[in-house]
Specification:
Elements: H1 7-11, E1 18-19, E2 24-27, E3 40-43, H2 46-65, H3 87-101, H4 107-120, H5 125-132, H6 137-144, H7 149-159, E4 173-175, E5 178-180
Antiparallel strand pairs: 1-2, 2-3, 4-5
Amino acid sequence: MYTGLRPGELRKTEFEDLDTKNWTLRVRHPKGEASYGEYRIVPIHELLKLYIQRYLNAREKMLAEKGLLEAKPLVCKKQWPHKFYSDNILRQHKRKIEEISGVNFELRALRRTYGQMLIDRGVSIESVSIALGHTSTITTEKYYCRKNADTVRSEVLHAFDPAVPSPKSPLISRKIDFTGYS
């Protein structure tokens, strides 16, 4: 919910893709990587840092118990640390989380939530689109997130605020507070 990653992007993340100095995650295997997909860097939200650090400590301990110094997958299986999670294993974990929490959810809904949270906090649709790994803002707006009515109303009212300078165009003459033809 705080990264906007697709499940497959998270599953295929390699340990070296995580940068805990800058708190970013490289998406090495984006959707459509063979054609339209582009690599991107995802910032890691402050709320995730503690959980990631705990996970990394547990991961390091698990690898040490297996006599391993490293494993390529960031999210690896205890039985086979050198193998990436499968879609099926990820779905099993999701079901377990749903059982424990009592909340049913779709993994794709977490991406939508991420995008909508960014829009609601004033991030431009262009930036949200790039963060989600979309090639066009049309996909972002159509399937993921849009500005809510209160934000739009506030922005429109702010545009007509007399304290806000309006753009001047040499093609339109300005008389008093109205634009028009002379």
